[in-house]
Design the sequence.
């Protein structure tokens, strides 16, 4: 479905203007722009760029926090240790698995919830919206504990409530195996962040022009056809933003794993690995190398999303 | 920092130096001791407590980060013994004055002194000492015909539980408690996790592939595969064990003495029948081999003084007050944490509150500390990775763990 836009207008240079130079007005505008964005830019540099650069710097050293005297430069050796360790690749695999499963389920569920919110009767809409958003307001550690208690073999209710399901018994130890542990971890993640995706998709739904829907209706398109041919193509930018944010988020999964299994049964994620080297082992050099690799993975994901979706973010913001 | 805090304290106390005591969470006992010692000091100091996270590994993480940044606000620290070598080696602990070292080790159980020592020097002040006992249901032992007045082995316990269809509770979760169990097994078999110690990580020699290491893995797998450990053994913690033992399937359990106060409070709260703790029996930790005495786990808390504190002398003065016999006795009675001072166990009130006081003291005298090394996190983490789940322990596990921990210590592998 294509959008009708006016053909681009070619600007003509004023005859008096010297070629290539910018006018006083646009220079002033540019200056104002920097003044307005400057403070935020400086804060960003301080709180993000500085720690990232420091991590990159530390990752080149053999550096243990409790033994600062023996800090020594060892080039890329830390990266070599990380990249040749099967544990790293296992963690990458587990992280990707959790990311793919949770984001896929969340997208479908989130879209359904967004449709419910947009179609709900006007007077119950605020209630529906609030109810859907509650899980997102819960702190991740708290939600992880809640799910852990629910599935715990001694304190949990899941085993007794769902004993009628095949594979669930009163003695099912959910956190005793890789598959079942990952299942609960994914479930907790999905419960917690589906509202986030549905909120972003709701904003996208609201942007789909009603005239297009009506035109399609007049042409005899069914509900299903309108969903696939009108609604979804028109909210591509919103879907991309939702997917991108959630994928980046899911790739950094930590809290649920830390609370539920503490990395047992091969459920370590990349973030957990970084935590263990940096915080538990206080091997700042090695841990920083893991963190830098995690950062690069996140950058790669963002890059692939933006290229893959071929969406102009400026367009998504309605600037063009 | 201290003066700022004192100023915040308000009133006429602004001239009194404030000692910040970082404590592990308890039932309020350390805060009470802090208040009492502040009063007794006659204005020489005032102790303010700050509570650390619940897990001992998380306590260490926070303290290491703060001390690595030369945090002067840390005057007194409640330290879990396995982390003491790391703190001492890194220079995080102020040296113990010689005369004080003599006084605070007098009449203290041996394992507690060992746990407070690094490189043949006392680096912390022994406060309270913990040890695991073998708890059993008298009715179950009787039904199984097991004579509990004699030392028993793990094999005997498992057989008795199988015969009576009851549960043997131990800690199979991938956590510090697994290291506690494994260390007790290897020490009971006459070996050690670290065969040859060193401050250089490359030089540390492990003893996991030696005969005692193999025996430890064997017993671990024997218990885990016995079919009498309950359905979630690989996630079982000290609390899970206590719950199992309180249930009607409870048979035998290795655990810290807190399970006694826990059962009594449950009776008081009406959630447990009074006949249950009446049925509790206790004895020394089970043996690995019939003719070798067991080496029970040792735990507890020692007091360290922060190296960057502005009031090192005052802080050491305070440790003497905190660890006085009276305070240890009261702490034991109110919070259930066993004293490190031998004399406390003769206190009639302690004897009344803890009918097993003599067994605890005996167990403490025989207890073996966990591997003492500045690289404890690596050693313990490596053990947990390889020996979990406990049912997977085999005669190859020792070799694998030894290779992993060695590579991690040399900085060649992640953990």
Sequence:
């Amino acid at each position: 479905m294509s959008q009708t836009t006016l053909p681009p207008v070619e600007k003509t240079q004023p005859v008096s203007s010297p070629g290539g130079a910018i006018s006083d007005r646009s220079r002033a505008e540019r200056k104002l722009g920097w003044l307005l964005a400057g403070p935020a830019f400086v804060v960003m540099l301080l709180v993000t760029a500085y720690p990232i650069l420091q991590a990159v710097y530390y990752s080149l050293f053999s550096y243990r926090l409790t033994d600062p005297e023996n800090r020594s430069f060892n080039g890329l050796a830390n990266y070599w240790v990380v990249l040749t360790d099967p544990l790293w690749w296992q963690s990458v695999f587990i992280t990707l698995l959790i990311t793919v499963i949770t984001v896929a389920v969340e997208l479908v569920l989130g879209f359904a919830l967004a449709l419910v919110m947009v179609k709900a009767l006007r007077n119950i809409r605020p209630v529906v919206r609030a109810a859907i958003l509650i899980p997102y307001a819960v702190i991740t550690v708290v939600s992880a504990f809640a799910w852990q208690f629910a599935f715990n073999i001694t304190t949990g209710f899941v085993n007794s409530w769902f004993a009628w399901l095949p594979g669930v018994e009163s003695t099912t130890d959910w956190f005793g195996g890789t598959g079942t542990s990952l299942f609960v971890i994914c479930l907790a993640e999905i419960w917690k962040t589906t509202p986030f995706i549905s909120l972003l998709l709701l904003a996208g739904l609201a942007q789909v022009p009603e005239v297009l829907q009506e035109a399609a209706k007049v042409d005899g398109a069914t509900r299903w056809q309108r969903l696939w041919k009108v609604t979804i193509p028109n909210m591509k930018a919103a879907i991309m933003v939702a997917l991108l944010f959630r994928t980046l988020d899911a790739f950094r999964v930590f809290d649920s794993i830390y609370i539920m299994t503490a990395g047992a049964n091969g459920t370590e994620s990349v973030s957990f690995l970084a935590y263990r080297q940096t915080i538990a082992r206080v091997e700042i050099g090695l841990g920083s190398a893991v963190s830098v690799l995690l950062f690069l993975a996140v950058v790669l994901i963002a890059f692939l999303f933006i290229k893959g979706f071929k969406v102009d973010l400026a367009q998504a913001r309605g600037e063009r | 920092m201290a003066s700022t805090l004192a100023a915040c304290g308000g009133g006429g106390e602004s001239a009194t130096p404030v000692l910040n005591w970082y404590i592990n969470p308890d039932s309020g006992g350390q805060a009470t001791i802090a208040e009492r010692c502040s009063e007794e000091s006659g204005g020489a100091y005032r102790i303010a407590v700050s509570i650390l996270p619940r897990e001992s590994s998380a306590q260490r993480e926070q303290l290491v980060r703060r001390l690595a940044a030369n945090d002067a606000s840390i005057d007194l620290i409640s330290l879990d013994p396995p982390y003491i070598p790391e703190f001492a080696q890194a220079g995080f602990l102020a040296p113990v004055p010689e005369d004080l070292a003599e006084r605070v080790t007098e009449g203290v159980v041996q394992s507690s002194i060992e746990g407070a020592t690094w490189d043949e020097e006392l680096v912390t002040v022994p406060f309270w000492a913990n040890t695991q006992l073998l708890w059993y249901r008298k009715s179950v032992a009787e039904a199984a015909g097991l004579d509990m007045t004699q030392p028993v082995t793990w094999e005997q316990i498992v057989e008795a539980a199988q015969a009576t269809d009851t549960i043997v509770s131990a800690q199979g979760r991938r956590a510090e408690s697994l290291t506690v169990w494994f260390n007790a097994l290897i020490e009971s078999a006459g070996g050690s996790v670290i065969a040859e110690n060193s401050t250089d990580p490359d030089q540390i020699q492990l003893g996991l592939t030696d005969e005692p290491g193999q025996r430890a893995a064997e017993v671990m797998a024997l218990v885990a595969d016995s079919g009498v450990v309950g359905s979630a053994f690989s996630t079982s913690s000290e609390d899970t064990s206590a719950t199992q033992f309180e249930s009607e399937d409870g048979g035998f359990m290795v655990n810290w003495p807190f399970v006694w106060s826990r059962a009594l409070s449950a009776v008081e709260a009406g959630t447990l029948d009074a006949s249950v703790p009446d049925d509790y029996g206790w004895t020394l930790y089970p043996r690995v081999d019939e003719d070798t005495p067991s080496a029970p786990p040792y735990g507890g808390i020692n007091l360290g003084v922060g190296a960057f504190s502005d009031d090192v002398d005052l802080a050491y003065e305070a440790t003497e007050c905190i660890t006085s016999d009276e305070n240890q006795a009261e702490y034991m009675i109110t919070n259930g944490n066993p004293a490190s001072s031998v004399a406390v166990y003769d206190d009639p009130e302690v004897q009344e509150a803890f009918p097993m006081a003599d067994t605890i003291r005996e167990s403490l005298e025989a207890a073996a500390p966990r591997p003492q090394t500045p690289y404890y996190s690596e050693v313990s983490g490596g053990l947990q990775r390889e020996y979990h789940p406990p049912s997977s322990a085999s005669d190859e596990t020792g070799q694998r763990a030894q290779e992993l921990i060695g590579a991690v210590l040399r900085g060649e592998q992640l953990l």
The radius of gyration of chain A is 25 Å. Strands of chain A lie at 61-62, 72-73. Residues 86-281+289-316 of chain A form a domain with the MetI-like fold fold (CATH 1.10.3720.10). The first helix of chain A runs from residue 24 to 58.
